[in-house]
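User: Could you check the structure of this?
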Amino acid sequence: MSKFGVILLLDHTVAEEMIRYSQALTGKHPAYMALGENAPPHITLLHAECDLTAAQEWWNATKKIGSSLNAERAGLVLDHIPVGDEYVPEGGVSCGVSIVRTSTLNEAHGIALNGAQNVNARPLGAFGENFRPHATLTIFKAFPDGPIPFDRSAIAGGVTGRLALGELGLFGTFPRIIAEL
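Assistant: Sure, the predicted structure tokens are below.
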């Protein structure tokens, strides 16, 4: 089975800021991934495992979310990832941007989750009550052993995301966007 995600691709200006910041972070500390062409900045509404036909049916059901949503970035967060994690089997440290969990994002997540369940796709990661909107900047191999560069423009403030369906790649990235509104 393949893995897909219904995501919000971030507007161009914010995406470029986040890519620059991600690359600055990975230039200072060993990491598994950085944002860029094959890892576009995004907010995940839901990841799921299914075949391509089911993913396309899921996508059709999620289009009622609308073409774009607004979100609020709420700062930098680092989280330990244990060895054996489904996204980072090697373990490491996720470095990302916390996104305020608004009623609008909750509703969009619920539509994506219902759509996935209706086509028998298996939800992955944090979903339902555990839904935790965020935008990953990088996955460090270990907690940084020195200062982390800080860029407020990349981690705080409003952002608009376009609804898209992508094929899930390594470390929760989306190297292939299949469709977007």
